[in-house]
Specification:
Layout (H helix, E strand, L loop, with lengths): L2 H8 L7 E6 L5 E7 L2 H10 L5 H9 L2 E6 L3 H15 L6 E3 L6 E4 L7 E4 L8 E3 L5 H14 L11 H6 L6 H4 L13 H15 L4 H16 L3 H20 L1 E2 L6 E10 L2 E10 L2 E11 L6 H15 L6 E3 L12 E3 L4 H30 L1 H17 L7 E10 L2 E11 L2 E2 L5 E4 L8 H18 L7 E5 L2 H13 L7 E5 L6 E2 L14 H26 L15 H11 L2 H5 L3 H8 L1 H13 L1
Parallel strand pairs: 9-12, 12-13, 14-18, 18-19
Antiparallel strand pairs: 1-2, 1-3, 4-11, 5-6, 5-7, 8-11, 9-10, 10-11, 14-15, 15-16, 15-17, 19-20
Helix pairs in contact: 9-10, 13-16, 14-15, 19-20
Length: 601
């Protein structure tokens, strides 16, 4: 967009707070920003002749400007962050943190269980975390186990079930790890009191737990219950030992979030310390890639918003090394000059400096190590053997997966420069195909993958591997042709087990030299897509996501369908069974339903 074109629309942009959005070709969102004064802020992109090269490149691509007026700066701040998370605009800061972290969940149920999970559901349960250190988290859970007896079983402990006497205490009760609520040996009130102590431990608030144990110890000694007193003393020692290993930062009241920033060109590094009750209970690093000339204040403010949301922080004070514009209600921004909070900033700077040095070291190794040189040679060899137009630095491989003739899913893995790039792995629940049809399934998932890449203007791979031979290769080509991508990428089919490679239109396959590094790379990619697909398949089956064809037969339930599949291996075999075989397993009535269903099909 030129200055003249902007001048024509400028009068319609108000002098009010809000967010602005820049769109490029094909209505693609390029950038989202916030402003106290929309017209003034947007005008700086078009009226400043000394803007950077990156900003100039953005302005050249702008075809349309949209804006949304909000009531306050805080509303603009929140809306900007929400849109960036939703659409990942090309020119906004990118947060490079795709890890998943574990939570501790306190399950919403009678006599709630407490356990680790990496999945967070909107089920009314209380989730604490996420936690960045699994080792520290397991140590915390061990502390809970030693201190507070809670149930670990999955029994439905409703008051009605307990009153009926449906359950018996297990070994955990006899070991002293559970007080036996299943047999009404522990009241719900007492269990909830124990649960409150667990919450205190998990939130780093150890003082109330220590005080309660000391009171219980005094009472036990006073009443000459020396064995009980010895047990309490053991718990106190365990708690004090854990407390001694925790990082205590001095007499800092309340809860704090501490952030520091370091930069290396377009790459920024942020360290986060979560401080509760004078103890650092979380530490976390993130790496960000800046796209324009964002200031340190803008980068840190963006990182703080994302990290606080990710870690569900409720701290009302944020400690930073320099002033930032962070318009969130009820939040105090502190820039300490001395004292315990300044020591926290110094500690955070030490952490972020170490993280940055480690990143540089790993980057240097990656650029110069022998294995990188070997990968380059392997890819060059693969290019020569397959007669590819370019070195296949970007390879994607597809595979279909099903279980006993049912439950179809597909997986795709991505290798960049000869190594797995897991952030670009994708799995697909098949949407448009009924039953097992590998060709239609491959046609669907290839279409979905490259339609998405085309719409987002993302780079296309140099080489696509279709694991499954000629039929699936042709199905994939149909999808690429419908997207107008035929000839823009090399596509090959890989026959299962035999490692024969098919090119489109060739009647004969080729086989790479058995001991070549190029074939080893193909095998690695094939094995990786199998592993990733099977892993996804197991997850879906364990969640009960799938429903096989047999369950669609009226009168045939899930247990009968599973019995048939486990006995006869596949739906295809079941269709071919004689009536007597079915009747001997599931009885005449259900056998008749199955036979009638398949005869209509």
């Amino acid at each position: 967009m030129t200055k003249e074109e902007f001048a024509a629309i400028a009068a319609g942009i108000p002098h009010l707070p809000g967010i602005y959005q820049y769109y490029g070709e094909e209505n693609h969102l390029l950038y989202v920003g916030k402003a106290k004064d929309l017209r003034k802020r947007v005008a700086t992109y078009f009226s400043n002749d000394r803007i950077s090269y990156k900003t100039h490149e953005l302005v050249k691509r702008i075809k349309r400007v949209e804006f949304t007026i909000v009531d306050t700066e805080q509303d603009a701040f929140l809306l900007e962050n929400a849109l960036i998370k939703e659409y990942h605009p090309r020119y906004n800061i990118m947060l490079k943190d795709d890890k998943t972290y574990p939570y501790i969940v306190i399950k919403k149920e009678p006599f709630p269980r407490v356990f680790l999970t990496r999945r967070k559901y909107a089920d009314g349960s209380e989730y604490l975390g996420p936690f960045t250190s699994v080792g520290k988290l397991r140590e915390l859970m061990e502390l809970v186990k030693q201190m507070i007896p809670l149930r670990t079983c999955k029994l439905p402990l409703s008051s009605k079930n307990i009153a009926k006497g449906n359950f018996k205490v297990c070994l955990e009760y006899h070991l002293g790890n559970c007080k036996g609520p299943c047999e009404n040996k522990q009241s719900e009130e007492d269990y909830n009191n124990s649960l409150q102590q667990v919450k205190n431990i998990l939130k780093g608030n150890l003082q109330p737990v220590s005080a309660l144990l000391k009171d219980n110890l005094k009472e036990a000694v006073k009443n000459l219950r020396f064995e009980e007193a010895a047990g309490i003393q053991k718990k106190l020692s365990y708690l004090e030992d854990y407390q001694a290993r925790s990082v205590v930062v001095g007499k800092v009241p309340g809860n704090l979030d501490v952030f520091t920033l370091s930069r290396d060109g377009a790459t920024a590094f942020v360290n986060y310390l979560m401080v509760q009750n004078g103890t650092i209970i979380q530490t976390h690093h993130v790496q960000l890639e800046t796209k324009l000339d964002e200031s340190d204040e803008e980068v840190l403010s963006f990182a703080i918003s994302n990290i606080r949301h990710q870690f569900n922080s409720l701290a009302t004070e944020i400690v930073v090394p320099f002033p930032i514009d962070y318009p969130e209600n009820g939040i105090t921004i502190t820039v300490p000059k001395g004292g315990d909070k300044k020591k926290l900033i110094d500690l955070s700077f030490k952490n972020v400096a170490y993280y940055q040095r480690d990143w540089k070291h790993k980057k240097s190794i990656h650029q110069h190590d022998d294995s990188n040189e070997k990968r380059i040679k392997t890819l060059a060899s693969l290019q020569e053997l397959l007669q590819l137009p370019v070195i296949p630095n970007h390879i994607e491989c597809f595979d279909n997966s099903h279980f006993q003739g049912g439950y179809p899913v597909s997986a795709m893995v991505c290798f960049m420069h000869g190594i797995p790039d897991k952030q670009h792995y994708r799995h697909f629940n098949v949407k448009t195909v009924t039953g097992i049809d590998d060709f239609a399934t491959m046609r669907e998932v290839v279409y979905r993958r490259y339609k998405r890449l085309t719409l987002s203007q993302s780079p296309l791979p140099n080489l696509i591997i279709i694991d499954g031979g000629k039929g699936q290769l042709n199905a994939a080509l149909e999808s690429l042709e419908s997207l107008g991508l035929k000839g823009k990428m090399t596509v090959i089919g890989l026959a299962k087990n035999q490692e024969e490679i098919f090119f489109p239109g060739d009647s004969n396959s080729i086989q790479l030299p058995w001991t070549s590094d190029a074939l080893r790379l193909i095998r690695q990619i094939r094995d990786e897509v199998h592993r990733f697909g099977i892993q996804f398949h197991r997850k879906q089956r364990s969640k009960g996501t799938f429903k096989n064809e047999l369950e669609d037969i009226p009168g045939i339930g899930k247990k009968t369908a599973e019995l048939l599949l486990s006995t006869f291996s596949s739906v295809k075999k079941i269709k071919e069974l004689p009536k007597a075989s079915l009747e001997s397993l599931i009885g005449p009535a259900k056998a008749a339903l199955v036979l009638d269903h398949f005869s209509k099909g």
